[in-house]
Write a structure and sequence with these properties.
By secondary structure, this protein is α/β, with parallel strands linked by helices. The protein is built from five helices and five strands; from the N terminus they run βαβααβαβαβ. α5 links the parallel β4 and β5.
């Protein structure tokens, strides 16, 4: 069984990566897919003074679920089993750490993320994951 980590951010590129994994299923039986959304932590001490820890965790969860919505809908429509996770941290570091800790065989992700600045940042994130990963990485354009 090929264990695939599929980091998504709610962008069209993430959904294209999901479509790529669905095509892989046609070619190979036995895929285990894990969706991962990584939320960027709110580091400001000022914000933390006014927002309770539980409220911040709820915010991360809600934002993560929203970002996962499109990918989950595609996998659900294809009746493809998956597990989803939401993490908080530096995006590339979190993806790489998660892949290593959970023993994934491959990472499949979009080349870019959301529009504007997020697209630039997430494009560099995919490049960083590609450079630093010690397992195969497929970038989907």
């Amino acid at each position: 069984m090929l264990k695939i980590l599929l980091p998504v951010d709610g962008s069209a590129y993430g959904e294209k990566a999901v479509a790529h994994v669905l095509k892989l299923r046609e070619q190979s039986a036995g895929l285990e897919v894990h969706l991962l959304n990584v939320q960027i932590p709110i580091e400001s001490g000022h914000a933390r003074m006014f927002v309770a820890h539980d409220e911040l965790q709820d915010y991360y969860r809600d934002e993560g679920l929203e970002a996962l919505k499109g990918a989950r809908a595609l996998l659900d429509a294809a009746d493809f089993p998956y597990v989803f996770h939401i993490a908080v941290g530096h995006v590339a570091d979190t993806i790489l750490r998660y892949a290593q800790e959970k023993g994934f065989d491959k990472i499949v992700m979009g080349t870019h993320g959301r529009s504007g600045l997020m697209q630039v940042l997430l494009g560099s994130i995919s490049e960083e994951v590609l450079r630093r990963a010690d397992i195969p990485v497929t970038l989907v354009k």
